[in-house]
Amino acid sequence: MLFTNWAGNQTASPSEVRTPASTDEVVRAVRDAAAGGRRVRMVGTGHSFTGVALTDGIMLRPTALTGVRSITGDQVTVLAGTPLKALNELLHERGLALANMGDITEQTVAGAIQTGTHGTGRDTGGLADQVSALELVLADGSVVTAAPGEDLFDAARVGLGALGVLTAVTLRVEPAFLLRNRRRRATLSGMLGSLDEIASADEHLDFFWLPHTDACLVKTSNRDPGPARPPGAVKHWLDNVFLENTLFGLACAAGARLPGLIPRINALSAAALADSEAVDVSYRVFTSRRDVRFLEMEYAVPREHLGRALRETRDLVERAGWRITFPVEVRVTPPSSAWLSTAYGRPTGYVACHMYRPTPHGAYFEGVEEIMTRLEGRPHWGKLHTRDAAYLARVYPRFADFVALRDRLDPGRLFGNAYLDRVLG
């Protein structure tokens, strides 16, 4: 069976595919792999652009390892293969919600946590920062629960699947809440002029700069007592389906055929940006629909370097003469205590560059990566980058501790693959 990821840029041919429905079945697969001299990995829904989940051994598909195991107070334990979109709905039915999340809901809980998926938040971090316990199957076939205060907990929350197979996750949740979401047009030059103030003014900030223009779409969200005022069905379809997906996809396809039109296309897109406001349940505000296939590179830089990172990226795009259709996305998060979180130990700004899947991306990503690495940037584990263990050891204070723990728990590299060989050594 050939496995291909969502973007179509990563493939694998595992020797065997299993669909475990319980922790015991994961244990059996791990022991079988060890006995047969094969490697084993659990793959999610394929939304990583890197080869982080690939294997030539036993591939575990978690489509049967789903659902809520228990809810106790503000703690919910879910099985690892539960899609985030299903978790959101299950929590909402019970009057609960995650405090923060990323904008894609197709991922599994385990896949999102293991690769460090994050949203944007002034006070609240990504999914890994909302984890309160992890159940893992280790290389010797034992099942352990990692809890706060243990090295394994801080290492495995963003563990890349390198320490064990994640089978269940306990997350802190809270009573369901509403968010007031404002969308407004702004200029990149204006954003850069007051970036520190803008980043601290709202609970959640997400903005998109359209290359070849000075235009930005700024999205801010803050908790609201209600009542809810969600966008109407027509407005929702127009913004989230037609403009941001159908029409945008047509623009990307036109730009791929005629790159010289891209600056004009982006100028038209900028002119179409409009202000709007709605109040809706949190997970509907946090998440977005993404139908147009793309490739992505994202770097996390210290918050104090975010303005410089954006200025240099803008100047590079203008100087190099590339034609970039996709917006550059900017988000922020507070410090994290997960060892391999891109936000470990520092307030963080994120710069994400995207390219339409059928078009070349090498020079653009390479040029932006050079800027980000000069600014102590850390690449997102699930998005394209060229960094190796030597570089990553310099920007992650607990990198050596993670590798030492991996050496102890999986000395034979049962959970290894080519990507982990590069990034962990």
Outline the fold blueprint.
Blueprint: E1 3-4, E2 11-12, E3 16-18, H1 23-36, E4 40-42, E5 58-60, E6 68-72, E7 75-79, H2 84-93, E8 96-97, H3 109-114, E9 131-137, E10 143-146, H4 151-156, E11 165-172, E12 174-175, E13 178-187, H5 188-193, H6 195-201, E14 204-209, E15 215-224, H7 233-257, H8 262-272, E16 276-281, H9 282-286, E17 294-302, H10 306-320, E18 328-333, E19 348-356, H11 362-374, E20 378-379, H12 389-395, H13 399-409, H14 418-424
Helix pairs in contact: 10-11
What would you say this structure looks like, in words?
The protein is α+β, with helices and mostly antiparallel strands and 425 residues long. The chain is built from 14 helices and 20 strands. It has helices spanning 23-36, 84-93, 109-114, 151-156, 188-193, 195-201, 233-257, 262-272, 282-286, 306-320, 362-374, 389-395, 399-409, 418-424, and strands at 3-4, 11-12, 16-18, 40-42, 58-60, 68-72, 75-79, 96-97, 131-137, 143-146, 165-172, 174-175, 178-187, 204-209, 215-224, 276-281, 294-302, 328-333, 348-356, 378-379. The strands form five sheets. Strands 16-13-15-14-18-19-17-20 form an eight-stranded antiparallel beta sheet. A hairpin with a 2-residue loop joins β6 (68-72) and β7. α10 (306-320) runs antiparallel to α11. The protein is globular, with a radius of gyration of 21 Å. The mean pLDDT is 96.
